[in-house]
Design brief:
single chain, 405 residues, mainly alpha
């Protein structure tokens, strides 16, 4: 079962491996082909997509109160292995220019996520009525967007002309960031955010989430259709509607945050990730309106990639895992506290390095300053890996000590 206590290699390790590989590529990027593309996709397609599949399953079991049989972990592992193989093929195929490999990888990724979505949909149909079923509907809707995004990514890998490159990169990035990851995020934070803050859920949260879902889905469909048909103005309007739906849903986060403001790394990082997601949506919309030319939009897309991969995705996955890993390892409150003490080390410093450094990188500063700031961002993010290892070891040691006692 996804929600089982203790360690589980297929659940716990691939996301961390992708993050470590992203750090390695960042360190040796001058000698790596397509290094920027590779870093972005190691985080978004690798670490965050794996985490999205794992933890949406975990929350679906918890929210629907569906008990898993012993074979469920094996079936979930097969889905995760399929995703892992597909991701690896995409990450090899695109930089290597091997289009058939890219197609095979994108197909496997689509199969894994659709399989995941079908499992959640069946769980939803079999479950008894209860609160926050809407979160699982977000997960199912998110999974349905992945084949669309994968198809657009495969077309991008064919190397279209500048005009179509601009259209496809906007459609592809928005489908994956706002459809797959954005909807999974909004479904999860509905209940995870108050849990992270250790306070009550707003009584209106479920209603707001139910009202926001059709707005988010309709807006994203408009964005994709308008981008592919070449209307920059309508694409920008679709992004504006999506942002309104996101803000309508986001009111559910406000009361818990006012009751108990963020004070730990997990809540700092997730708050910053949400802010960068909104910034990224606004950045693309403004570029579409001011440039009005798809080739120009595509040529100036590097800041958007940095915002989505670093500001949004990397902080979201490190923040969420800082809260989830100690809890899921289990062992009681003292064990959870022992693990979280590691995840909280240098919390303010790490958040400041990542967000301050990224902000400076996006400003018109000299290249030497930008390189220095990028290094600080990398240090702030890379620190998560050794702290996570220390946190897991602390949990295991504390659990053993309790067993001995």
């Amino acid at each position: 079962m996804s929600g089982a206590r203790g360690t589980w290699g297929m659940r716990d390790r691939p996301g961390v491996v992708w993050l470590v590989l992203a750090v390695v590529v960042a360190l040796v990027h001058p000698v790596v082909p397509e290094s920027t593309w590779l870093m972005v996709h190691l985080v978004l397609l690798g670490a965050l997509t794996h985490s999205a599949m794992v933890w949406s399953t975990h929350f679906a079991h918890a929210l629907l109160r569906v008990r898993a049989d012993p074979a469920d972990r094996g079936r979930q592992s097969r889905r995760l292995v399929t995703l892992l193989a597909g991701t690896a093929l995409v990450l090899l195929g695109v930089p290597g220019g091997w289009w058939p490999v890219t197609v095979a990888g994108a197909t496997l990724v689509s199969v894994a996520v659709l399989w995941h979505g079908i499992v959640l949909w069946r769980m939803l149909r079999a479950a008894l009525p209860g609160r926050f079923r809407i979160a699982v509907r977000y997960y199912v809707a998110a999974a349905a967007w992945v084949p669309v995004g994968a198809t657009l990514g495969v077309l991008l890998a064919r190397g279209p002309d500048d005009l179509w490159h601009g259209r496809l990169i906007v459609a592809h990035s928005m489908v994956m960031a706002l459809g797959w990851l954005g909807l999974t995020l909004t479904g999860t934070l509905l209940t995870l955010w108050p849990t992270m803050l250790r306070t009550r859920i707003d009584d209106r949260a479920e209603r707001w989430a139910r009202q926001a879902l059709p707005v988010l889905l309709g807006s994203l469909a408009l964005v994709v259709t308008a981008a592919l048909t070449g209307s920059t103005g309508v694409t920008a309007a679709g992004l504006g509607c999506y942002l309104l739906g996101l803000l309508w849903w986001g009111r559910a986060l406000l009361r818990p945050a006012l009751t108990r403001p963020p004070s730990e790394y997990a809540t700092y990082a997730v708050s910053a990730a949400l802010a960068w997601l909104i910034t990224g949506i606004g950045w693309v919309a403004v570029a579409l309106v001011t440039r009005g030319d798809w080739a120009a939009v595509g040529a100036s897309y590097t800041p958007v990639a940095a915002i989505l991969a670093t500001g949004f995705a990397a902080q979201l996955v490190t923040g969420a895992l800082s809260s989830l890993i100690p809890s899921v390892l289990g062992g009681g409150p003292s064990v959870v506290r022992a693990g979280r003490a590691w995840f909280e080390r240098l919390a303010v410093t790490r958040v400041t390095l990542v967000n301050g450094g990224l902000l400076l990188c996006l400003l018109p500063v000299p290249s030497a300053v930008r390189v220095a700031c990028a290094a600080l961002v990398l240090v702030g993010l890379a620190a998560f890996v050794p702290l996570m290892v220390g946190g897991i070891r602390a949990c295991v040691a504390a659990r053993r000590a309790l067993a001995v006692a």
